[in-house]
Amino acid sequence: MLQETHLTYPPLNTLKPVADEVWIVDGPIIRFGIPGLKMPFPTRATLIRLSGRDLFVHSPTPFGAGLKAEVERIGTPRWIVGPNRLHYWWIPDWHAAHPGSEVYVAPRTAEQARGRLAFDCRTLDRSSGYPWDHLIRTLPVAGDYMTEVVFFHIPSRTLVLTDLIENFEPAKTGSWLVRFLTWAGGVRDPDGCTPRDMRLSFMRNRAEVRAAVETMVGWDPERIVLAHGRCYVRDGGAELRRAFRWILDR
């Protein structure tokens, strides 16, 4: 357990403000990969408060009683979002605690979840027409394996990504093998990027993915919140151009 804590971003399961009306919640480690070689991934949720204390919840982490009390002090979860097909596991916990919330998930999430999402879910399959459009921009980025949906909070200039950029700090990877894998995969801090295998899945839609990245750069974010690894707290536009040079420079 001590080792697992060393791999995360404590304090865990508590709200941390990152900008006006924006909070993150650092969660526990999950392990993901092929059998026998599963990498430790620190997890992170993002909450954005809109008008009327409505909360937009991105990539939920575990929802225990302590966090629930904190969240209810700042607002009510209104929209719970699974931004790609891999980030759905704790959505049922948040929805059970707030059954009036609406759940939005990326395409193919139901296929991945295999019945875990046993309630109505809406699909994030377009860039507008959502109840949060006035304050949050939505941008689907489609690949062969999965679509990741990107969000940009306009007032705070906060870009929220999931797996399009991963940025694992060497000191939080746990072993020399994982440090090597993050380097080989192109996702090691300070040069976190899109994982190499995910880049390959975008080759068929290369022009569309490049256009999406150019849209993100055009938003000129101040900061970038990531689901895995160290976030970028300043110079968001420059970090985007660096992290996506694999598609912008070709």
Question: Can you describe this structure?
Answer:
The chain has 250 residues and is an alpha/beta fold. The protein has one domain: Metallo-beta-lactamase, Chain A (4-Layer Sandwich). The protein has 9 helices and 11 strands. The strands form 2 sheets. A 7-stranded mixed beta sheet has the order 1-2-3-4-5-6-7, with helices on one face. Strands 8-9-10-11 form a 4-stranded mixed beta sheet, covered by helices on one side. A hairpin with a 2-residue loop joins strand 1 and strand 2. The protein is globular, with a radius of gyration of 17 Å. The model has no long low-confidence stretch (mean pLDDT 95).
Keyphrases for this structure?
Metallo-beta-lactamase, Chain A, single chain, four-stranded mixed beta sheet
What is the CATH first-level class name? Alpha Beta
Strand order of the largest sheet: 1-2-3-4-5-6-7
**CATH-defined architecture:** 4-Layer Sandwich
Structural class: alpha/beta
**What is the CATH fold-level name?**
Metallo-beta-lactamase, Chain A
Task: List the domain count as a whole number.
Answer: 1
Helix content: 25-40%
Order of helices and strands: HEEEEHEHEHEEEEHHHEHH
Question: First CA to last CA: what distance?
Answer: 44 Å
Largest sheet: 7 strands, mixed
**What global shape is seen?**
globular
In round numbers, the mean pLDDT is 95
Instruction: Give the number of DSSP strands.
Output: 11
Number of helices: 9
Low-confidence stretches: none
Integer-rounded radius of gyration: 17 Å
The CATH superfamily title: Ribonuclease Z/Hydroxyacylglutathione hydrolase-like
Proportion of beta-strand residues: 25-35%
